[in-house]
Amino acid sequence: MTLVTSTLCLATLTATSVGILIRAEAHQAESGWTYPPACCKAHDVGGDCEAIPAQHISPGPHGFSIFLHRGDHHLATKPHLFFIPYGDEIPSGDGRYHICLHPTENEVNCFFAPPNGA
User: Fold this and answer.
1) Which of 15, 67, 99, 111 is the most exposed place for a label (fewest CB within 10 A)?
2) pLDDT in the model for residue 42
């Protein structure tokens, strides 16, 4: 099990079994739902989670390929290509794709996809 898989499993378990625990410990998406505290590690301006453009996400046979352009996420200073295997995504609270980059812009802490995966 990879670090990303372990982290995503822990975040999913936390979000589904306990719900949103303490709203003050994680920031909100622009749509108003709050990221799980296990996903949102940065508490300063903007945090480390943000909605990302759906057109840069390609569901494939084994998971999601995410091409993050510079500026698609406020922490992305260069292009990134991430792969998230099916089962490691967390259902999005607003029907949009979101990604949490932590501890650096090179690492995915959590990835949220619409419940239908579209």
Assistant:
1) 67
2) 63
Contact between residue 47 and residue 99 where contact means Cβ atoms under 8 Å apart:
no
Give the closest residue to 50 by CA, choosing from 18, 13, 81, 94. 94
Q: How many residues does the chain have?
A: 118
Cβ atoms 68, 76 nearer than 8 A: yes
d(CA 82, CA 103): 15
pTM of this prediction exceeds 0.70: yes
Q: What tokens does 55 get?
A: 């057109």
CA-based nearest residue to 53, from 40, 39, 65, 68: 68
> What CA–CA distance (Å, rounded) separates 103 from 109?
8
